[in-house]
């Protein structure tokens, strides 16, 4: 099985920065992408950013220019550098690991909380 562990959340003032980390371990076959989703209070879970095994990145419009996703393939670790944080970025952030072996399969971490105060 695949284990996914996030770290790096916390409380920060608006305009500040945080860096989230996510490490995947276990038997990982057919890794396609790693990414971050978030779920704010009363909202549905949404994609923040993801990065493919080939290094292609994808960002939500709301975070473009402020957040940067990167990846260490050797360590199966993905990072999310969040700058110029806004109160609306407040959410639980979840790491996603997507594999493909005949079908897609998603693995999720337990989430890390990010709170941005105004």
Any key phrases for this structure?
118 residues; four-stranded antiparallel beta sheet; 11 strands; 0% helix
Chain-wise SSE layout:
Blueprint: E1 2-7, E2 10-13, E3 18-26, E4 31-39, E5 46-52, E6 57-59, E7 67-72, E8 77-82, E9 91-100, E10 104-108, E11 112-117
Parallel strand pairs: 2-11
Antiparallel strand pairs: 1-3, 3-8, 4-5, 4-9, 5-6, 7-8, 9-10, 9-11
Can you characterise this structure?
The chain has no helices and eleven strands. With 118 residues, it is mainly β. The strands form two sheets. Strands 2, 4, 5, 6, 9, 10 and 11 form a seven-stranded mixed beta sheet that branches. Strands 1-3-8-7 form a four-stranded antiparallel beta sheet, with no helix packed on it. The N and C termini lie far apart (40 Å).
